[in-house]
Structures are given as structure tokens and as C-alpha cells.
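Now for a chain:

_____
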Amino acid sequence: MDVAVAGNSTPYNRLQELKAFDESKAGVKGLVDSGITKLPKIFVRPPEDLAAADPVSDNPAGAQFTIPVIDLDGLTGERSGVVAGVRRAAETMGFFQVVNHGIPLKVLEETMAAVHEFHELPQELKAEYYSREQMKKVKYGSNFDLYQSKYANWRDTLFCVMGPDPLDPQELPPICRDVAMEYSRQVQLLGRVLFGLLSEALGLDPDHLEGMDCAKGHSILFHYYPSCPEPELTMGTTRHSDPDFLTILLQDHIGGLQVLGPYGWVDVPPVPGALVVNIGDLLQLISNDKFKSVEHRVLANRIGPRVSVACFFTLHLYPTTRIYGPIKELLSEEKPPVYRETSLKDFIAYYDNKGLDGNSALDHFMISR
């Protein structure tokens, strides 16, 4: 729709501007490289979003809502203490950080360096990987929901489906190929450990969630958030919860990730060598609301680039006939199912079509009573 911009006789055609940005294949990094000092209108949050109360957490009772750090070194000793810590975090805030997780610091550092190296390639080299094809396993782009969202996020992403079918390394950009394959291998091992702990935290056998294929597939997203000329007008990532079972996130020292707590937004502070873990929508669904998939967001920042690496544990669009609903062992007369059963394909389709609109996809799958 054409809209006349105040003080400007030229009508604003949003779709045309979105297409121009998309077809440039240059992403947000390309805009920054062009020397812009003002935010293009497609990135500006609507007035109602900017005007909405957006408090940073201030608990009047004085109790601190903080993201716990769980030391996995404890698994060699008193495992029940680690399980209890995971249970507490998964049931309340849906987020925790892990240290002594087994992935060498050198691998973490090389992975972060690879994100910079790919996104800072010359535009024409990155453009070869630019795509909005849903089934493409390796693709670079900006805003998966560009045409659905109310405003675009200040972020570029290299998206790689690493499993369950092994990815042919040749599909990955040469500059980050070896690092991506090694990080994928290491994070998959960690995922299996975490699903074991989460199974026990639900009172189930350690291999229960893995037996449901929760750890069978994963995708890795290499996010790049360039410095922003007007960060107060946009977001790095709009508030959302994740459409997977579990997310493991490697973030750099810049920060900007926030979780929605009971009294407002809470920073997830970067902890050297730690990985951030959060419960996804699908794990909230199958745990019948016992575990919480909590909304989070990333602020845009004048300081940048900020980089992060998100690993989504999900089969994504892999063809599977498995249907997911609340785990039978967790149900009783007092605790009937909260959600209806769904295929992963239907869940992902609903999530992607909806885009990051600030509403949970889980609401759509709730059983009305």
C-alpha cells in the first residue's frame, strides 16, 4: 500500500522497499557498508510498538530474577543436584547458562570468528548463498519473515540444516565449512546430554526425550547484528519464543539478549565460555506446560557487529510421520492435556506463516476448555 510520508510528497511503498532490500541480496550489512545514517523505514517499529510499555525488570519485592548458571562438571559427582538445577530453570524462567559443557574454548572462539568471516565476505560471494527457498539446507538471508513482519529486524543470518540427514560439507561456504562441521558435531553431543537431564527433570527415563527424536535433527544459525545508526527505533530480533525442542546459543561479549521475566525484560549477561540454553515451544507442548518456552528478544545496538550462533534442536522440515502431543506419562485426571497433537511440519508452517509477531505459536495448538 502506498502511504504519503509526512513532509514528503513521495508516497511510501512498503512492498517495493522490501523487494528492493531483498533483491539487493546485501542484507543489513550491505546497508551499513553503504554508509546510511538513518534507518530505512522498513526497519522502524510501528508507533504503537514504540509507545508500548517496555519495562526492563524492576522487581518491587526486591527479589532478583536472574538467569542461573549450571556447572555440568557436577555430572561426574552428584548428578541429582544438576538435574534439580535444570528442573528449576526449565519450570520457571525457561533459560539457563551452562559451563564446563565439554565444548573446547578453542572451538567456541573459532566458531565466532567464522561468523564474522562469512558475513564480512564481499557481497558478491555471499549473494551466491542468498535464498528464500524453504527446503534449501544452506542459505544466507535477512529476516525469514521479511514479508510477514510489521517491521524488519536489524540482523543477517546464515542458516544451515545439519541433521538428521548428514549435510554434505560442500554445501557450506568454504570460509566456515570446517568450523561449522566441528561445532555441529560438538553441540549435538551436548544436546544429547541436556535432553537426558531434561528427561530426568520430568521424572522420566534419561533417554525418553531422545527416544522421541528430540535430539535427532538440528539446525545452526549464524547471526550477525551490524552496528545500528538508530537502535532505539528497531530491534535486532523481535520478541518471540523458539519453534523447536531446545536451543543452545553461543553469544559474544557485546550482549543485548533479553528474556521476558515476571517484572519485565531481563538481560542475559555474556559469561565467558558459557552457552545459553532455552526451552523451545515444542518442549513446552510435549511437557504439557511443565517446562516453559519463554519469550526473548535481541536489542539493536550502536556497538557492533554483535554475533551469535544458535543451534535449534528440531527435525524442522524433515519428512517424519511422528506426531507430537503431551507425553502420556505426564498426564492424569488432575493434569489433562493442554495441547492437541501436531506434526512438526504443521507446527513450523504455522510459525513461519505467522512470523515474529509477538504472539506465541503455542496458543494456536491449545485445547479450548
About this structure: Residues 203 and 330 are 9 Å apart (CA to CA). Residues 1-7 have pLDDT under 50 and may be disordered.
